[in-house]
Specification:
Layout (H helix, E strand, L loop, with lengths): L8 H9 L9 H8 L6 H11 L6 E2 L1 H5 L14 H11 L7 E2 H9 L2
Antiparallel strand pairs: 1-2
Amino acid sequence: MAFSNLLSDAEVTAALDACKAANSFDHKKFFKSCGLSAKSTDEVKKAFDIIDQDHSGFIEEDELKLFLQNFSSGARPLTDTETQAFLKAGDTDGDGKIGVQEFATMVKKT
């Protein structure tokens, strides 16, 4: 698990179990239940680096779709509806992607 040095396996498993069904993902609940919202800003930035698969400095739509798989390879992809809602929640400047500061703000708002 990519987050094993940052989050507890039990919390991640519980967070993933809570959103197994399609269209059940809620980023606020997920960040809180996996423990990410309680982490320091530096730790949240480390999480961002894991999710930013192409290391572009942004989390784009295709990376958001596979968001849960960063926590467990067997996790489901987000639906298009979930992906769009997630992107809309994090993309405060309207550029179609989530930057590190936008991500940190979104995680801490939970």
